[in-house]
């Protein structure tokens, strides 16, 4: 069961990133698709499955936020990613602010993925050092 849930989780990680990149492209080009119903609903479906699978995995491996540092880092990274994504796709007042938030959200996403792969709060920075 663990591997099935982990596979679901990783699939949702990839789908979430692909969706964010596509919506970021639509934001940059001013496409009306950004406000279409699928673009507003599907990310919530994917991210809900992502979060539920993450909780299930944390319970299965008994690694919890505020207990395991790398899991805590991922939770705080997720919060930063959500806030930056909201600024990038909805709340940024200018295109420049939106683009900056979009780039920052992508960097946070990459860091979260590196923390998950290395099980180290520093992520790939720990490997490079």
TrEMBL record:
InterPro entries: SirB (IPR007360). Keywords: Membrane, Transmembrane, Transmembrane helix. The keyword Transmembrane applies. The chain crosses the membrane at residues 6-29, 68-89, 96-117. Pfam families: SirB. GO terms for cellular component: plasma membrane. This is Regulator SirB. It comes from Thauera humireducens.
């Amino acid at each position: 069961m663990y591997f099935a849930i982990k596979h679901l989780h990783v699939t949702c990680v990839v789908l979430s990133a692909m969706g964010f990149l596509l919506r970021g492209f639509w934001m940059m080009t001013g496409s009306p698709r950004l406000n279409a119903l699928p673009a507003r609903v599907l990310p919530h479906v994917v991210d809900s499955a992502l979060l539920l699978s993450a909780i299930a995995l944390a319970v299965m491996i008994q690694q919890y936020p505020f207990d395991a540092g790398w899991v805590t880092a991922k939770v705080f990274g997720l919060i930063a990613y959500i806030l930056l994504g909201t600024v990038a796709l909805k709340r940024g007042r200018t295109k420049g602010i939106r683009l900056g938030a979009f780039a920052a959200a992508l960097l946070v996403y990459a860091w979260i993925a590196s923390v998950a792969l290395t099980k180290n709060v520093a992520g790939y920075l720990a490997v490079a050092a």
